[in-house]
Each structure stands twice: as structure tokens, then as C-alpha cells.
From TrEMBL:
<dbReference type="GO" id="GO:0016887">
    <property type="term" value="F:ATP hydrolysis activity"/>
</dbReference>
<dbReference type="InterPro" id="IPR013563">
    <property type="entry name" value="Oligopep_ABC_C"/>
</dbReference>
<dbReference type="InterPro" id="IPR050319">
    <property type="entry name" value="ABC_transp_ATP-bind"/>
</dbReference>
<dbReference type="InterPro" id="IPR027417">
    <property type="entry name" value="P-loop_NTPase"/>
</dbReference>
<dbReference type="InterPro" id="IPR003593">
    <property type="entry name" value="AAA+_ATPase"/>
</dbReference>
<dbReference type="InterPro" id="IPR017871">
    <property type="entry name" value="ABC_transporter-like_CS"/>
</dbReference>
<dbReference type="GO" id="GO:0005524">
    <property type="term" value="F:ATP binding"/>
</dbReference>
<dbReference type="Pfam" id="PF08352">
    <property type="entry name" value="oligo_HPY"/>
</dbReference>
<keyword id="KW-0547">Nucleotide-binding</keyword>
<feature type="domain" description="ABC transporter">
    <location>
        <begin position="59"/>
        <end position="311"/>
    </location>
</feature>
<dbReference type="InterPro" id="IPR003439">
    <property type="entry name" value="ABC_transporter-like_ATP-bd"/>
</dbReference>
<dbReference type="Pfam" id="PF00005">
    <property type="entry name" value="ABC_tran"/>
</dbReference>
<protein>
    <submittedName>
        <fullName>ABC transporter ATP-binding protein</fullName>
    </submittedName>
</protein>
<comment type="similarity">
    <text>Belongs to the ABC transporter superfamily.</text>
</comment>
<keyword id="KW-0813">Transport</keyword>
<dbReference type="GO" id="GO:0015833">
    <property type="term" value="P:peptide transport"/>
</dbReference>
<keyword id="KW-0067">ATP-binding</keyword>
Length: 398
């Protein structure tokens, strides 16, 4: 991130000290050239989905990569490798849409969200927000763009300063953008914000520890709304909450979207949450998108072996279907993003892997059906049954 103007209080106020350090410390531009020279740049160029062609696009991400250097050395630090946290992601989000990002822990979802907001400096690629390339913005234009893109964090307790009252938390963000003053208009705005997230005005004088988890997340959402954003990146917005409270917060996010015309990028490992809230879903594996489709299409007909395995692990409420449905058991752990497998990143765990091509050639994310993009050399053959699992023990029934 460009730190010329200091750390943006809006974007980093919810970060832990370590995250703030990351937000300021990563030098992506220099990395890019070196990595390109080493031939380690990202996935084959992906086509953007027809689902977004000609649509009113608010956010467009093209070949985005975020590679973190691994440094070693006691006296002189040397870069000995890179963590390929995000490695060539292209996607577009329509205005007013909810785009869900799913994948196992460590696959790069959070880093992608932070790269989009320039909380970490991308190594390569571009992020167009309302047509403006965020990477090229400096100082004042960047600050203006930042106002329009806000983040809601997973753990509201650690993202809210325990020493600040709710009023001070909310006013801080507004002040950074010249939206708060000592007039009654600010007080009116604060009351409106609390009412919008379902909290009483008395909450303004209280401190974060005086609230329940769900109420704290409402405060986190109110904080994001203080500056009238267009895009909210919500990173696991309900995963720290009790199941009974999750639905309330999801409903709140949906109500606010309908009322304020917000666009959401929702990051979650819980497929049920994403299915409920997202219009379209991107599935990530080891730093790349492996599949993208409407929520309905993805859940009804996943085409990438990884998505099939992820979805096959979700229990079905109908006991008859539950007893007979196919479950795909993935063997092995997620490989390290510092040392990703060659070819298709998923080939080491894929029950359908085919010799040579899967381990040598990285598949591009191609549109196989309208609005349905898949990065698998054999997705069509797998779907038709022309290719069966190599490792049959990976697929079990009931
Ligand atoms: N600042 C950093 N420096 C080095 N490596 C990092 C940094 N931030 C993230 N990583 C690594 O990048 C990879 C992707 O992490 P990321 O947090 O984006 O994944 P995730 O899918 O959001 O996982 P989770 O759901 O657990 O947060 C991980 O291997 C992580 O350890």
C-alpha cells in the first residue's frame, strides 16, 4: 500500500497491529518484476463471465496477484521465495450484486479482499472500481475512492477499539472524510445509523464489551456505513457468531443492501451462508478462482472437482437424499501456497486427475456454460461421466 499519506484510518482502524503492519509493509511493485523474470507469474488469463458483459459493473479485478516475500537471514535479509496467496484472479461484480467467495482456510480469500481494497499492495494485475484503476490512484483520489469501499471484519471484538465508545468509533471514520462536525446534523446521522442497524441511541455512550457478539457486528456494519460506501467487503461477517444470531445479521445485510443499493463481496468458508446471501459465487483454491457461477447453478451443478468435493460435504436436510448422496473425500492437505503444485493446482488431490496434462498445464478459467466459468481441463468429460474417478476410494455413497 502506498503509505505516502499515512495509514488510512478508515481502512485500517479495524486491523490488528500485525495486520496494520502488513497493510503498510508489503512492497508489491518490486516483487512483480522479479517474479516475472523468474517466470512465477499467475494463472493463464481468464475470460470475464458473460454474466457481466454489458452489465453495470462496479468492481472489476483483472489478473490480480498478491505474492508475499519469504525473507530469511540474520544479518542480511534475503528473499528466498514467495507465498502465492493470490495468483491471477479475474472477476467482475455488478452494481447492487452480492458476490460470494468461498474456499478452504488459507486459499487466499482474505488476501484477495485486502488486495482489492489496497490494504495489501497487489503484486500484479488491476482493480477497477467504478472504472478507475485503484492501483494508479494517489493521495486525494485514493482517499475518495476508499470512502466508497469499506470492510466489515470477522471478529467484531478485535476490530473495535475497546477504549472507544460507539460514538467515538463511528465519528472517527466520518471525520477522516470530513463528514462529521459538532453540529446536530452529525448526531442525527449517528442516530440514523444505529437505527439502520437495529441498535438503540443509548448504544452511542457504551463501549464494545457491553454488547453481545451480534450487536458488536451491527456496530461494525454501522461503522462501515458512516461514510456512505458503495462496496462493502465483508470478511466472514457471521462466522464468529452463534448460529441463531447469524441469520439476523445476514438479514440485516440484505435489508441494508435493498435500502441503500450496496454492492457486497462476501468472503466465507460456510457454503450455506454464501448460498443464502450471494447472487454469484467464486470458488477459490490455492490463490486462484477455479469456478464461478450463479449461486443457483453452482449449488445445483458444480463442474470443478474441487467445488464438487466442497459441496458434497454439505449435509442435505432430506434424510433419504442424505443417505444416498455422493460424497467426494479429498485426500491430503491443502498444499502450501509457498510451493504450489505444477500444472493444475488441484491435481494432487483430484480424484479425476489425468496423466501429464493435469500435472503440467495450468487450466484457464473458461466459460463452459453461459455465466459459468470453470478452470478444469476435463470438466465436460467429468460431468458427462466419460472420465471416472482415478481413485475410486475418493468417492463414496451414503
Ligand atoms: N502478510 C502475509 N505474509 C505472508 N503470508 C501471508 C500474509 N497474509 C496471508 N498470508 C498467507 O497467504 C495465504 C492465504 O491467506 P488468506 O488469509 O488470504 O487465506 P483465507 O482463504 O482467507 O484463509 P482464512 O479463512 O483462514 O483467513 C496463507 O497461506 C497465509 O498464511
Amino acid at each position: 500500500m502506498s503509505q505516502a499519506g499515512g495509514v488510512d484510518p478508515l481502512q485500517t482502524s479495524g486491523l490488528t497491529p500485525l495486520e496494520q503492519q502488513y497493510a503498510g509493509a508489503v512492497d508489491g511493485g518490486a516483487l512483480h518484476e522479479q517474479e516475472l523474470a523468474e517466470g512465477t507469474a499467475g494463472a493463464p488469463a481468464a475470460e470475464l463471465s458473460a454474466a457481466t458483459a454489458g452489465a453495470d459493473i462496479l468492481l472489476e479485478v483483472n489478473d490480480l496477484a498478491v505474492h508475499f516475500p519469504i525473507r530469511r537471514g540474520v544479518f542480511v535479509e534475503r528473499t528466498v521465495g514467495y507465498v502465492y496467496a493470490v495468483d491471477g484472479v479475474s472477476l467482475a461484480v455488478r452494481r447492487g450484486e452480492t458476490y460470494g467467495l468461498v474456499g478452504e482456510s488459507g486459499c487466499g480469500k482474505t488476501t484477495l479482499g485486502r488486495g482489492i481494497l489496497r490494504l495489501v499492495e497487489p503484486t500484479a494485475g488491476s482493480v477497477l472500481f467504478d472504472g478507475e484503476n485503484i492501483a494508479e490512484l494517489k493521495a486525494e483520489p485514493l482517499r475518495r475512492a476508499r470512502r466508497r469501499m469499506q470492510m466489515v471484519f470477522q471478529d467484531p471484538l478485535s476490530s473495535l477499539d475497546p477504549r472507544q465508545s460507539v460514538q467515538s468509533i463511528l465519528v472517527e471514520g466520518m471525520k477522516a472524510h470530513g463528514l462529521a462536525d459538532s453540529t446536530s446534523a452529525t448526531q442525527t446521522r449517528l442516530r440514523e445509523l444505529l437505527s439502520a442497524v437495529g441498535l438503540p441511541t443509548s448504544a452511542l455512550r457504551k463501549f464494545p464489551h457491553e454488547f453481545s457478539g451480534g450487536q458488536r457486528q451491527r456496530i461494525g456494519i454501522a461503522r462501515a456505513l458512516t461514510v456512505n460506501p458503495d462496496l462493502i467487503v465483508a470478511d466472514e461477517p457471521v462466522s464468529a457468531l452463534d448460529v441463531s444470531v447469524q441469520a439476523q445479521v445476514i438479514n440485516l445485510l440484505e435489508d441494508l443492501q435493498a435500502e441503500l443499493g450496496l454492492t457486497y463481496l462476501v468472503i466465507a468458508h460456510d457454503l450455506a451462508v454464501v448460498r443464502h446471501i450471494a447472487d454469484r459465487v467464486g470458488v477459490m483454491y490455492l490463490g486462484s478462482l477455479v469456478e464461478e457461477a450463479t449461486s443457483t447453478d453452482l449449488y445445483a451443478d458444480p463442474l470443478h472437482p474441487y467445488s464438487r468435493a466442497l459441496l458434497s460435504a454439505v449435509p442435505v436436510p432430506d434424510p433419504v437424499v442424505e443417505d444416498t448422496r455422493e460424497r467426494i473425500l479429498l485426500t491430503g492437505d491443502l498444499p502450501s501456497p509457498a510451493n504450489p503444485p505444477s500444472g493444475c493446482r488441484f491435481h494432487t488431490r483430484c480424484p479425476w486427475r489425468q496423466p501429464t496434462r493435469c500435472d503440467t498445464e495450468r487450466p484457464a478459467l473458461l466459460e463452459l456454460q453461459p455465466g459459468h466459468r470453470v478452470a478444469c481441463h476435463y470438466a465436460t468429460e467429468i460431468a458427462s461421466g466419460a472420465i471416472t474417478p482415478v481413485d475410486r476410494s475418493a468417492t463414496v455413497f451414503g
